[in-house]
TrEMBL record:
It comes from the Bacteria. InterPro entries: DUF885. The lineage of its organism: Bacteria, Pseudomonadati, Bacteroidota, Cytophagia, Cytophagales. Pfam families: DUF885 (PF05960). This is DUF885 domain-containing protein.
Length: 597
């Protein structure tokens, strides 16, 4: 009997031990299943996200932008946060699962806590908005491989009146809270809207961009003439009977609202504007830096970069002060391509060559490389007047649609030759293409982490990638190196001007003047940059803060590891966990250092 009791005790002990081991596995799997369910639910609620991923589902629909839907999203988020807290034992998770848990919980909690600021933005502005998203998504992401795909394209155009009605309701809600864009925004957005509904089949002889895109796509299907003609007729009807009235209604509303707008630029004018701006800074930089601290960092960095630019002046034998050097670079034609179609094609060819040359160097910098390809493309005519000078669009999930480095060649004087290399490195390779393509190709992490957004991490990496080629000796001449510094100077000035406008109550004109006095940017570039600050508060502070952190962590790792430091391994630590906040990046770098010590 005694032996049986002992045997029973041992059995219970073994069972208990197995149960504990099983519990660890169960929590990891349970969390993984939860993340997959929540990601799939997020995708299911967003037809536009589905299209961006390359899915052929809900291709006839747009996202729901109603107030009701927004509140439903908040409730879903609250329920998901409560579930994960109640159902998962954090301490039982493996290290990778702990990272995913923290990222999900922190992001959800932030969004719930700051829901009161969810209307503190401008849904249409000169940088982005539903008005420009519509043609951009249809042209760049909506693939037509069959007649049903083409009909879905037409159905999306037919649905524009409802979409724009929701958008106008959003704008009215914001106005009730005192959130109206400054006056300059209205003319830019109205102009973009009018561009979209100009040309055949609206008015004029040139075909509108959407019609041209649709016809080009269905031509590749090699349909019978009757089928092709029927689709073109359906598109024409949808554009004239649905798209035009939708855009006209938005133009009418904006024209009316413009009469109630003023020239005040900063978000300090909003109710609780100071609190909102500090929250925005915290989320953008993933730090606790105050507006004043960021402003001071910017001033110091501007002084440092000016000093390095003066050294380049000596190298090229320029006589005069820095302002004179700025003027020389802005005015001398040798630094710019002519404003002709032939010269713009040459710019694109040169940018492609820069990208290809860097591709050949990737083994020196990276262990992990993306499978998806990348191409260089001009910003489309319908949005090039108001769009930024360059940006990146990630590839489809399956890689069938490549990543795109967009260059805005509306005016060649805004795209100097000496900035070409740094710009390509930032937006293309090794910048956003390496980072974003690798992130969505990662295996073994939840899907939500592949598409997470932490601006300081993303743009900090992009700016860091402008600096890496300098260390490799890849900038072709002192002027190209100056171009690198010129772009870094922009990012340093952004710290000063963004905080100046939104915290120190600078006017739009004061911001423009600061850029003109401290950079070699053209009048248009300085103006466009300040206007970007105004409609995207805090966003532009991410670049410099993020880059400085990535460099700081790299130098710390070099110092601690000495000969054991491997730059390729460091880059793997940085970009093979998806986008993450800077404090978590520091933890991961420290863990890597310990693992190699």
């Amino acid at each position: 009997m005694k032996l049986n009791i002992i045997t029973l005790g041992l059995s219970l002990l073994i069972f208990s031990s197995c149960k504990k081991e099983k519990a660890v596995i169960d929590y990891d799997n349970k969390l993984s299943s939860f993340f997959q369910r929540t990601f799939e639910a997020r995708v299911e609620r967003s037809p536009e996200f589905q299209t961006s991923l390359g899915y052929k589902t809900n291709m006839d629909k747009w996202d729901n932008r109603s107030e009701k839907f927004r509140l439903e999203e908040l409730q879903i988020q609250k329920e998901q946060l409560q579930w994960i807290k109640d159902s998962i034992d954090f301490e039982s998770l493996n290290p990778d699962s702990k990272i995913s848990y923290r990222l999900f919980v922190d992001k959800a909690q932030d969004q719930i806590d700051n829901f009161k600021f969810s209307l503190y933005n401008y849904p249409v502005n000169q940088m982005f908005g539903v008005h420009s998203m519509v043609p951009s998504l249809l042209i760049n992401m909506h693939k037509i491989d069959s007649i049903p795909d083409a009909q879905a394209y037409i159905s999306r155009i037919k649905a524009l009146p409802d979409l724009f009605s929701q958008l106008i309701d959003e704008l009215k809600l914001r106005e009730e809270k005192g959130i109206i864009p400054p006056k300059f925004v209205f003319s830019r957005v109205i102009d973009d809207c009018q561009n979209i509904i100009s040309g055949y089949p609206f008015v004029g002889t040139d075909t509108t961009t959407l019609y041209e895109d649709f016809v080009a796509k269905i031509t590749k299907l090699e349909l019978k003439d009757s089928a092709s003609s029927a689709l073109k007729e359906q598109l024409t009807t949808a554009l004239t009977m649905n798209a035009k009235p939708a855009y006209d209604s938005l133009i009418s509303f904006l024209s009316d609202q413009m009469s109630r707008a003023n020239d005040e630029a900063g978000v300090w004018k909003f109710p609780e504007g100071a609190a909102f701006y500090q929250t925005a800074l915290n989320q953008t930089t993933t730090t606790t830096l105050t507006a004043e601290q960021i402003h001071e960092i910017g001033l110091k960095e501007v002084d440092r970069i000016h000093g390095e630019m003066k050294e380049i002046m000596l190298k090229v034998g320029f006589e005069g002060d820095l302002q004179s050097f700025f003027s020389y670079l802005k005015e001398d034609d040798q630094f710019y391509y002519p404003n002709t179609d032939e010269a713009k094609t040459l710019y694109m060819d040169s940018a492609t060559t820069i990208i290809n040359n860097m591709k050949a160097q990737l083994d020196k910098l990276f262990i992990t490389k993306p499978k998806a390809d990348m191409i260089v493309k001009r910003v489309e005519a319908f949005r090039e007047k108001s769009a930024g000078k360059a940006f990146y669009q990630r590839p489809s999930k399956d890689g069938s649609r490549p990543g795109i480095y967009y260059a805005n060649l509306h005016d060649s004087r805004n795209m100097p030759k000496f900035e070409m290399e740094a710009l390509a490195y930032h937006e293309g390779i090794p910048g956003h293409h390496m980072q974003l393509s690798i992130a969505q190709e990662l295996e073994g992490i939840p899907e939500f982490r592949k598409y997470a957004r932490y601006t300081a991490f993303s743009e900090g990496w992009g700016l860091y990638c402008e600096f890496i080629p300098k260390e490799m000796g890849m900038y072709s001449n002192p002027y190209s190196d100056y171009g690198r510094l010129a772009m870094e100077l922009w990012r340093a000035c952004r710290l000063v001007v963004d905080t100046g406008i939104h915290s120190k109550k600078w006017t739009r004109e004061e911001g423009i003047e600061y850029y003109k006095n401290n950079t070699s940017g053209t009048e248009r570039e300085c103006t466009r940059m300040v206007e970007r600050h105004i409609v995207m508060p805090s966003q532009a502070t991410a670049y410099k803060i993020g880059m400085m952190k990535i460099l700081e962590l790299r130098e710390m790792a070099k110092e601690k590891l000495g000969e054991k430091f491997d730059l390729r391994e460091y880059h793997d630590v940085v970009i093979t966990n998806g986008m993450i906040p800077l404090d978590l990046l520091e933890e991961l770098v420290n863990d890597w250092i310990v693992s190699k010590s």
